[in-house]
Amino acid sequence: MAAPKKGRRPAGGQSRPGRALALILIAMVALTGGMFWSGHTTPRLGIDLAGGTSITLKAKAEPGQESAVNETNMNTAVGIIERRVNGLGVSEAEVQTQGKENIIVNIPRGTNEKQAREQVGTTAQLYFRPVLAVTNGGPAPAPTAGSSGSPSTTPKPSSSASGPTAGEKPATPSATGSAQGRALTEALKAPSPTPTPTGSASGTPKASGTPKASGTPSATPTPDAATAALQEKYTSLNCLDPKQRTSAGQGVKPSEPTVACGEDAPGVWSKYLLGPAEVEGRDVDDAKGQLDQQRGMWIVTMDFTDAGSKKFQAITGKLSSQADPQNRFAIVLDGEVVSAPSVRQTLSASAEISGNFNQQSAQDLGNILSYGALPLTFETQSVDTVTAALGGEQLEAGLIAGAIGLGLVIIYLVAYYRGLSLIAILSLGVSALLTYVIMALLGPAIGFALNLPAVCGAIVAIGITADSFIVYFERIRDELREGRTLRPAVERAWPRARRTILVSDFVSFLAAAVLFIVTVGKVQGFAFTLGLTTLLDVVVVFLFTKPVMTLLARTKFFGDGHAWSGLDPKRLGAKPPLRRTRRAHASAAGPVDPKEA
Predict the structure, then answer these.
(1) Given 218, 388, 494, 552, which is the most exposed site by the fewest CB atoms within 10 A?
(2) CA 67 from centroid of its chain's CA atoms
(3) How far is CA 270 from the centre of its chain?
């Protein structure tokens, strides 16, 4: 027997298809098991397929700041709202401007849809303001029997102070009247944009009746008209009235004193007289809701920027030396006091907000503060429920179109490639299974939602996957036309087909990546699905199509070139001279081993 030529290995030893098939089988079983284990056995659907909520927000400028409603601020607001909503895990939320002053937010139906609706229009203007006075939330009545007549100085629940109980009776601010007047007057006189309140440490408060615009002791500076108006507003403020709570601090600049309400417990409110803002929300670098294990309560922790740390250190240093309640600072979010802790020492790098938080409310507030405040105030124009009826009809039409396209591809494969079409159909099935399972897993993992453009991307992927099979099959046929037998043809065709497939899929993936980066909204769903299926095409061709082709080449049906195998040398027009020459050389050298043929 003639010795084999140097550098040539037997065709059967050029690949190990069993390993590749075992690898993809393990991956399929693991992914499918993970899908059932997670409980999410169907892909999450977008708003056009599952329905949801569409919210229309209208930008509202503060008096004298009408120019603030501009394209730059609107685009900034769109970005912040989108990050807030998607930060809650709401998939495929769409946020876009409509006209010059409207923003449309489309939220698919999902587990966090309610939270997203509550946060989309929240302005999240955060300020740290020193507390000048605090009392119960109702308007100041005459003292009643059983009440002490002294002010309640309990702020929002915090680590250093506890909130009022539901049975507490309203009280009138008396003991802090003169101190409040002095602090307020000093705050109004402060020239800087964010002045520091003087507080009440310089003098001892004297008892008096309900704070009035006048009637303070001679040692106290006479309040001017602004001071009198603010004190009157504070006295008459009724925090039990939702309208008054909302409008209490409207139109007030950060550099001006104001009044605000804070809820100590469900239905129990306190009202605050506050000095100018010392620290703003933009000074917060990061915020998150977390459970305080020692106290067993949910809090929101905040880390400040370098500039914010200096401001916070300055204000806490001054407040720590003041008497109650002027040793407290109020954390004011969108005009409402969410917490008013006492300050007993100088703080700098971080702070915490504590109050009536549960896990959801703490994490919501941390999410809002982390992504920043909206540059404009928005009012909700409409909240509409979107049904999935129209999307369902479009999905049905799309699936019918996809089924027709898949059917035509299969008919073409069967008619042209005959037995080889079995490999192509099996490969398409594996690709479809992997695509479905991965989409189902990506829903809870990263918030991916399947919308109509994404369905279109999956349909387009059928052509991309089928194109890879066709490239490989045609390379094999080219080798057979050159006079080689099937097993060597399968191995020799693979390197050239592999390069072509990789280049083609790389171009498709690059196009999908660029489309995903430069577009927004639903088009990103198309790009994401196209990129995902392109990657899966590479996996399926390398780990399934090629190994299966290698195994089938060893069977008699394909190896002998059956007429229905799609690899019949006669139908392919193989070159007889080359085959006769090879036989002649082989006969001269000795008997030919069938494996070497």
Answers:
(1) 218
(2) 31
(3) 35
Match 């080449």 to its residue by tokens.
Answer: 553
Range of weakest confidence among 60-64, 333-337, 454-458? 60-64
Output the CA angle 223-225-226, nearest 5 degrees: 90
Written as one string, the DSSP assignment of 275-339 is ---SEEGGGEEEEEEEEETTTTEEEEEEEE-HHHHHHHHHHHHHHTTSPTTTTBEEEEETTEEEE
Between 424 and 45, whose confidence is greater? 424
Q: Report the alpha-carbon distance of residue 459 to residue 533 in Å, rounded.
A: 10
- H or E element at residue 590: none
CB 284 within 8 A of CB 150: no
- The answer to whether the pTM exceeds 0.85 is no
Bridge partners of residue 342, in order along the sequence? 328
Say if strands 52-60 and 102-108 run parallel, antiparallel, or are unpaired: antiparallel
Residue type, 401: A
Cβ atoms 353, 171 nearer than 8 A: no
pLDDT digits (tens, 9 = 90+) for 276-290: 988 887 788 888 888
Q: Per the structure block, which two tokens stand in for 300?
A: 């929101």
Decide the pairing of beta strands 258-265 and 336-339: parallel
Tokens of 403: 């089924």
CA distances from 239 to 126, 137, 269, 276 (A): 20, 5, 6, 21
Residue 265: which H helix or E strand, with range? Answer: strand 258-265
Distance of CA 129 to the CA centre of its chain: 31
Structure tokens, 236: 């008459």
d(CA 358, CA 298): 6
| Short-list 347, 359, 352, 337, CA closest to 156 | 337
Give CA–CA dist 62/81, Å, rounded: 20
Can you read off the two tokens belonging to residue 313?
A: 């250190």
| Burial profile 294-318: b = 16 or more Cβ within 10 angstroms, e = fewer | eeebbbbbbebeeebbebbbbbbeb
- For 85, 314, 524, the CA distances from 89, given in Å and listed in that order, are 7, 38, 17
What CA–CA distance (Å, rounded) separates 187 from 199?
A: 9
Please spell the DSSP secondary structure of 123-156, one letter per residue. Answer: ---EEEEEEEEEEESS------TT--SSPP---S
Phi, psi of 373 (to 5 degrees): -90, 150
Question: Nearest CA to 349 among 414, 412, 303?
Answer: 303
For CA atoms 80, 86, 90, 91, the dihedral sign is positive
Q: Please tell me the distance from the alpha carbon of residue 197 to that of residue 316, in angstroms, as a whole number.
A: 11
Angle at the Cα of 231 (from 227 to 232), degrees rounded to 5? 115
Tell me the C-alpha distance between 435 and 568, whole Å.
Answer: 34
Q: How do the residues of the chain divide into helix, strand and coil, expressed in percent and rounded to 5?
A: 50, 15, 35
339: left (phi over 0), alpha (psi -120 to 50) or beta: beta
Q: Which regions of 358-440 does DSSP assign to beta strands (E)?
A: 377-386
**pLDDT tens sequence across 346-377:** 777 777 777 667 887 787 777 767 766 666 77
- Tell me whether the omega of the peptide bond preceding residue 569 falls within 30 degrees of 0, making it cis: no
Q: What angle do CA 7, 11, 15 make, to 5 degrees?
A: 100
pLDDT digits (tens, 9 = 90+) for 510-536: 999 999 888 766 788 889 999 999 999
The whole-angstrom separation of Cα 466 and Cα 509 is 16
